[in-house]
């Protein structure tokens, strides 16, 4: 006659796989899931290229920032023959706003937007037509204020 212990572990009792037991356990509630998701986001963000973001945010010196941005632009197949000096000479003349005409940094006219899902950047430009209409006045004011704060000339 089988004992109670033998009945408890009979082959008719289904044993769940480990991953199923983990996710169905009472200990792993919503807070634990959110904490796990937060850790995954932190580890995934470590793969981001901070140099490019720092260059476009103005956290680096202007020469280093321009170098990083130019190398980033040359990595694209369309801009592989890009000449930064010639580009600045020809494009600055098409702007009528003082900030853009005197700009010495690439980030004055160019910026990036990050797609967090794919961890890619989308290159954007503040076009002369829009800038001349005053579409970027808030950006200009913020940049001029930052330059004054840093003790630089306009």
Quick gist of this model?
With 154 residues, this protein is mostly helical. The protein has helices at 4-8, 18-24, 30-45, 50-57, 62-74, 84-92, 98-101, 128-132, 137-150, and strands at residues 110-115, 120-125.
Descriptive report:
The chain is mainly α. The chain has two domains: 17-45; 50-150, no CATH class. 53% of the residues lie in helices and 8% in strands. The chain has nine helices and two strands, in the order H-H-H-H-H-H-H-E-E-H-H. It has a two-stranded antiparallel ribbon. Strand 1 and strand 2 form a beta hairpin. Helix 4 (50-57) packs across helix 5 (62-74). The longest helix has 16 residues, at 30-45. The radius of gyration is 28 Å and the shape is elongated. The protein starts with a helix and ends with a helix. The relative contact order is 0.08. The model has no long low-confidence stretch (mean pLDDT 78).
Distance between the termini: 95 Å
Trace the largest sheet across and list its strands: 1-2
Q: What is the typical, i.e. mean, pLDDT? A: 78
Largest sheet: 2 strands, antiparallel
What ranges have pLDDT less than 50 throughout 5 or more consecutive residues? none
List keywords for this structure.
154 residues; two-stranded antiparallel sheet; 8% strand; elongated
What does the secondary structure layout of this molecule look like, with pairings?
Blueprint: H1 4-8, H2 18-24, H3 30-45, H4 50-57, H5 62-74, H6 84-92, H7 98-101, E1 110-115, E2 120-125, H8 128-132, H9 137-150
Antiparallel strand pairs: 1-2
């Amino acid at each position: 006659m089988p004992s109670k212990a033998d009945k408890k572990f009979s082959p008719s009792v289904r044993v769940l796989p480990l991953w199923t037991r983990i996710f169905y356990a009472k200990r792993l509630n919503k807070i634990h899931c959110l904490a796990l998701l937060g850790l995954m986001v932190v580890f995934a963000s470590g793969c981001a290229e901070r140099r490019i973001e720092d260059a476009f945010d103005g956290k680096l010196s202007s020469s280093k920032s321009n170098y990083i941005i130019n190398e980033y632009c040359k990595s694209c197949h369309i801009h592989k023959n890009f000449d930064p000096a010639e580009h600045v000479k020809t494009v600055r003349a098409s702007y009528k706003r003082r900030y853009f005409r005197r700009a010495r940094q690439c980030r004055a006219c160019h910026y990036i937007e990050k797609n967090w899902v794919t961890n890619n950047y989308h290159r954007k430009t503040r076009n002369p037509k829009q800038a001349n209409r005053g579409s970027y006045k808030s950006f200009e004011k913020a940049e001029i204020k930052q330059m004054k704060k840093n003790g630089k000339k306009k």
